[in-house]
Amino acid sequence: MVEDIAELYEPVAEEKDVRLTLTPAGTTMIEGNRSLISQALSNLVDNAIKYTPSGGSVTVTAMETPDGAELRVADSGPGIPAGERGRVVERFVRLDASRSAPGTGLGLSLVAAVARLHDARLSLEDNQPGLRAVMRFPRPTPRAKALPPPRNRSDGAAAS
Description:
five-stranded mixed β-sheet, 5 strands, alpha+beta, Heat Shock Protein 90, 22% strand, globular
């Protein structure tokens, strides 16, 4: 999924002269709705490319950690001031610096909603320079083994 999103946004990044890099980290498993997680990651990549100036870079990483899985999108753009990071995940909030760029202020709120739905945490961090958005997903729960169906008893006794 991460490779597909990076491939989808590669022409957008090239057109803007932004280097889009996918950091290989092996297989990463996330338990959840593929479509919603894909949309959230797409929003993060789209924002990163949109706000990174020409000549900058965006890095997308999926990795396993001891606590679960992480999806990271880091850019070399202007970032978001620490005091505004909690506010930008609210619906329709756009910072003054981004008002000239197209958008509705719903992208990060959607990412935050998808994270909550999957018991994940979204954190917006300083990438020095730029922003690093990290979705931290809990480790998938082990699935209980299905019990075999009860055998038919030929002696007339009820199976328990």
